[in-house]
Amino acid sequence: YPSGNLAIIVVREKKRLICIVQEDKPNNAEIQAVFKSNGRNTCYYPNGAVWINMNIQGGQYLDQAGSRVRRWTWPNGVMSSGPHVPLSPIFISLNRHVGVRILGRDKITVSFLAMGQQAKFNVGTKVQVSDLGRLPPPACLGEDELLLLAFRVRILRLFDRLRGCLNFPSNEQWDKMKPPAYLITQTLKILQLCTTSDISDELRSSIRAIVNA
Q1: Range ranked top by mean pLDDT from 24-38, 74-88, 139-153
Q2: Which of 8, 44, 46, 75 is paired with 98 by a 20 to 30 Å CA distance?
Q3: What three-state secondary structure class fits 15?
Q4: CA angle 60, 96, 39 (to 5 degrees)
Q5: Residue 54 and residue 74: Cα distance in Å, rounded?
């Protein structure tokens, strides 16, 4: 960024490339988007809620409350059921310098513009048509990913309660106030993922305790 803060990172993890977009902060910068060469991509709102989520089959666009605004499937995708839903081109601005354009599975671009200079990163995924029939079903989240999601929701809920204490210090009922709708939605989604993922009962109980504490 013009401030000197790191904006975009591209790293290699084993055989995959990962592109990470960070917010314009010198320390503890939040991640605003993650794009992986295996087709699993996620963009986040400034409040940390998931904005766009994509995989090798298709994607979905969510509002800040966690409700789905639209979904789509890529052409020649391998959806287990349901009709093909075409993609309408999407362009979002993660911040004043970084934008994301989604035109297709292999046409996803991260654009960086600052001080009259522009850089573009193609973060789309190319899939051989002949290999589509052999693609595995969507991968379930691993144990580490589920734990990270659970702790993230837990931290966001703690921050929300802290804001309530600061804004309404004389309110004795602040601890009984419900969290925002998007946090409730994310909590329910994590609990649903726990029931569909191949994890131990002990870990499943731990994740439930984290998000429900």
Answers
A1: 24-38
A2: 75
A3: coil
A4: 30
A5: 10
Here the contacts of 41-46 (C-beta below 8 Å, separation 24 or greater) are 41/108, 41/123, 43/92, 43/94, 43/100
Under a CB-based contact definition with an 8 Å cutoff, are residues 160 and 183 in contact?
yes
Measured from the Cβ of residue 124, the count of other Cβ atoms closer than 10 Å reads 19
Residues forming beta bridges with residue 8, ordered by sequence position = 21
Domain ranges of the chain: 8-131, 143-212
- Judging by DSSP bridges, how do beta strands 117-122 and 107-114 pair with one another? antiparallel
Of the spans 30-44, 68-82, 135-149, which averages the highest pLDDT?
30-44
Measured CA to CA, the distance from residue 51 to residue 73 in angstroms comes to 17
Sheet holding 107-114, edge to edge: 90-93, 98-104, 107-114, 117-122
Whole-model pTM?
A: 0.58
CA dihedral over 123, 124, 128, 131, signed as positive or negative: positive
